[in-house]
Recover the amino acids of this structure.
């Protein structure tokens, strides 16, 4: 039986870590990238395309994949681009076209619940420089909910680069107020571990130490 995944956002910090973690856990990994020469991990198939172009994504998803892993998003907090929202629309269309039902994606802690009625991004003290990106994550989350796909949306806070520790905590839907960061490789480790895990279907997940 095949164990094939495709990784979107594979040239970013989290995306690269996801590719390595998936490969280490025995998955056959394909990286979807805008420029093939920007991806340097050996022994991983590369598909060149643009996540903002639905036809490009739909074509790429025709490779018999069991699941999708998405780490798409802007590279900096100052980027005013719609990668997360438009890209997620492309991905969900492609998954529907090829009957792929499982997606594990990364968003941001701003779309976690602060309490029963408010998201973290709606709090008065939420950093204004993060609002654009958080709004993008919110749109991507709405797209996943409306798609009917089996999704898990991991919502980390600050993500410094670092190797896997495996010593992290998770919480359903609501932000963990006693932690603010998680290493990129630990986020990737958790993402890959969720591919076959039904415990967090259709959930947002807070993650931290």
């Amino acid at each position: 039986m095949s164990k094939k995944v495709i990784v979107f956002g594979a040239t970013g910090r989290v995306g690269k870590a996801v590719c390595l973690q998936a490969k280490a856990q025995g998955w056959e990994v394909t990286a979807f990238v805008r420029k093939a020469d920007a991806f340097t991990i050996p022994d991983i198939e590369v598909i060149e395309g643009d996540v903002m172009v639905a036809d490009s994504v739909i074509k790429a998803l025709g490779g018999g994949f069991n699941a999708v892993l998405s780490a798409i998003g802007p590279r900096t907090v100052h980027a005013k681009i719609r990668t997360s929202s438009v890209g997620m629309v492309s991905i969900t269309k492609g998954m529907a076209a090829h009957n792929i039902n499982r997606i594990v994606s990364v968003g941001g802690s701003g779309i976690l619940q602060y309490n029963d009625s408010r998201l973290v991004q709606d709090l008065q003290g939420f950093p204004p420089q993060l609002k654009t990106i958080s709004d993008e994550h919110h749109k991507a989350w709405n797209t996943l909910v409306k798609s009917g796909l089996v999704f898990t949306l991991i919502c980390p806070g600050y993500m410094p680069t670092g190797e896997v520790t495996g010593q992290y905590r998770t919480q359903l839907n609501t932000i963990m107020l006693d932690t603010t960061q998680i290493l990129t490789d630990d986020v990737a480790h958790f993402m890959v571990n969720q591919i076959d895990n039904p415990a967090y279907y259709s959930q947002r997940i807070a993650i931290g130490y």
About this structure: The chain has one domain: 4-208.
